[in-house]
Design brief:
77% helix, 117 residues, single chain, mainly alpha
């Protein structure tokens, strides 16, 4: 995203929709949820949480990752197809919503682990 912003400085007639790429949001969601799984596994080693909370965090993170993967597949399919088979605005909105959910879920997990330490 930073490279895109840098490149857009040199393009004439830049519009705001060029800055918001739903694939960036999907990959941010992937990163956040993989971090959640990593935190859950490291908390077991440090005995910060019990097995039930670790399994709960892992389960929800995997579910969000599956939804993000489906959206990513739909975004790639939409970029390859010339017709309007998929609604681009809905895909963009869904990817942003799932990224925001992932962010707040990760924030909740980090705050819980920090309060238990």
């Amino acid at each position: 995203m930073i490279i895109r912003c840098f490149m857009l400085m040199f393009i004439n007639n830049v519009s705001w929709h060029m800055f918001i790429n739903p694939i960036d949001f999907v990959f941010l969601g992937f990163t956040l949820n993989l971090t959640n799984i990593n935190e859950a596994n490291s908390s077991i080693q440090n005995s910060v949480s019990n097995d039930d909370s670790r399994e709960n965090i892992t389960w929800w993170s995997i579910m969000i990752i599956i939804f993000l993967a489906l959206i990513l597949a739909a975004l790639y399919l939409d970029s390859f197809l010339d017709n309007d088979l998929l609604n681009g605005k809905t895909l963009k909105g869904t990817s942003i919503v799932l990224c925001v959910i992932s962010f707040f879920y990760s924030l909740h997990i980090v705050r819980n682990f920090n309060s238990k330490e």
